[in-house]
Each structure stands twice: as structure tokens, then as C-alpha cells.
Amino acid sequence: MRKITPILALTAGILAVSCASSEPERLEDIGARALAGCTGSIERSHAAGDYDYSLDDCECVAGRITTPLWSDENSSYSGDPMPISDARAIAQAINKGQTFEIGLEKARETISVPASNSVNTCFAK
């Protein structure tokens, strides 16, 4: 019986990890990650003295990740799904932003106009 060399074992481990992560990330997973980060995002905001946004606001934004974008053809939110890159930017804003507002401002600098318009519906009162 032959022993597995450390290099062979390392190579096999890297291949196993890369194969396990080869499936594309789903909007539902990104949305769930964003939603799970809402409590922390609002807590960071409140700790920084920013009380402009509530947990409901954050949960609405996280929910927009899995909501189809606006369709001019149907005049409803029945259009294309949010691009993965936009969804990731929003989730990162919620999970890593200094405050909810600062994170959202940074995300708006990079996300598409349709995704930004979708997020804006959470604040149209």
C-alpha cells in the first residue's frame, strides 16, 4: 500500500473545494444571507447614532433581491431577475456596511439602475 504524499493530498483537497463551489450562487441564497444580516446592520446603525432606518427597511431591501425587476412591458414587477452582481453588492452592503445607510450608498454606486429602482421602492412612502 502506497502512502499519499502531502502534495498529492493538498492537490486533492483543492480540487474537492473547487468542485464543491462550482455551482452558481442562487438569488435565494444571496437574499437569505442579506436578510440574516439585517439585525446586525440596524444594530450597527443605531450604535453609530443613525436611527433613520428600521429593521423593516432592511428586510424590504433584502427581499428585493428575489423580486423580479420592473417590466415596462407589463407595468409590474414581473421582469428579469436581479443580476447576481447587484444582489451580491446589496447583501454585502447589509452585512458589512458600517451602517445600513453607508452600506446602501456604496452599493448604489455599483448596482444597475433597475436594481436601484427596485430597492428605492422600500423607501417610497
The proportion of residues in beta strands is under 5%
Give the number of helices: 7
What integer is the average pLDDT? 88
Largest sheet properties? none
According to DSSP, the number of beta strands is 0
**N to C succession of SSEs:** HHHHHHH
CA-atom Rg in angstroms: 19 Å
Quick one: overall form? Answer: globular
The level of helicity is: 55-70%
Poorly predicted spans: 8-12, 14-19
**Strand-pairing-aware structural class:** mainly alpha
Terminal Cα separation, in Å? 71 Å
Could you please describe the fold and organization of this structure?
60% of the residues lie in helices and 0% in strands. The longest helix is centred in the first third of the chain and has 15 residues, at 6-20. It is mostly helical and 125 residues long.
In short:
Helix 3 crosses helix 4 and helix 5 packs antiparallel against helix 6. It is built from seven helices and no strands. 60% of the residues lie in helices and 0% in strands.
